[in-house]
Specification:
CATH architecture of the largest domain: 3-Layer(aba) Sandwich
Number of strands: 15
Oligomer: single chain
Largest sheet: 6 strands, mixed
CATH class of the largest domain: Alpha Beta
Bound molecules: adenosine-5'-triphosphate
Number of helices: 10
CATH superfamily of the largest domain: P-loop containing nucleotide triphosphate hydrolases
Shape: elongated
Strand order of the largest sheet: 5-6-7-3-8-9
CATH topology of the largest domain: Rossmann fold
Helix content: 25-40%
Distance between the termini: 33 Å
Number of domains: 2
Length: 301
Amino acid sequence: MLKVEKLNKYFGAFHVLKDISLEIEQGEIVALIGHNGAGKSTLIHCLTQVHGIDSGEIVYDFDRKKIYDHISVQFQENYYEDNGKVYDICKLYKKLTKSKKNIDEVLSQFDLYEKRNLLVKHLSGGQKQRLSILLTLFNSPKIIFFDELTTGLDPVARREIWAMIRKINKEENVTIFLTSHFLDEVEFLADRLFVIKHGEIVLEGRIKDLLDQYSKDDKWIEIEVTSGADKLKFLPFERVSEKGDVHRFKVEADREYAFFEFLVQNHIVFQNVKIKQMTLEEIFIQIGGYAMNDEGDIVNG
Ligand SMILES: Nc1ncnc2c1ncn2[C@@H]1O[C@H](COP(=O)(O)OP(=O)(O)OP(=O)(O)O)[C@@H](O)[C@H]1O
């Protein structure tokens, strides 16, 4: 339903999107992840014609002149009036999109009927987010773009939003393109993933395939070294972290034995061994070329 070929975008001399190519099928949920400033919002802006592009092609399976009849966008900031009432904003959207949807029904569907006479600024974060998702549906879009779907929401509200997105996707066969910083969200919702780094797509694939491909191979082995730590630097394994006496290494599945053999042969004394598979988050960080700081935040690689 959407094909992008060699899209390039500059802001002045700054080359923000570099040769982006991707294809999305009708009914898919795809996620775009990447560090702050990687170019996620800019790509959404280009795909939704908020920004022009400098080269490349964007082809939808509908006439791009009527793009806003077929797409909806929920940006990071909401552009509707905070001082308006929930019902009035729905009415405005219905009118603007010449929608046949019944406002009361849609509000009930999104559990906002009771709140219809409240000012938007008096809604909670989760309710506001539900409203902004609801508003994207008035024009019965073929594809909806969500920029940072659940940023700022608590865990319960996030899960409610996920359920809503799944429902919209299933029941109305709407294609969903979302950006997110949360890999649990991506894993739960998306069929496919694109990783963008410094304006380039560095990885794409079905979530399940990526998991199968990457998680079976590597493990972390964590040891607390009580003597001989100075010899660890000769260990032919990548040390991924070191906190006090606790050292963590990346070890390929078939080299576990070699790892411990090296420790014993070099008289490195250790205790508290922990072995674990890489988590989804760690896999993505590795394949996306990112790094994780001590607090567990993703930082640019
Ligand atoms: N209108 C603009 N003029 C100049 N530079 C811009 C403009 N909009 C974005 N940029 C720059 O383009 C880069 C990509 O920004 P963008 O907002 O697309 O990143 P992002 O991946 O969505 O980041 P975040 O996760 O922080 O929302 C950043 O370096 C940003 O400063």
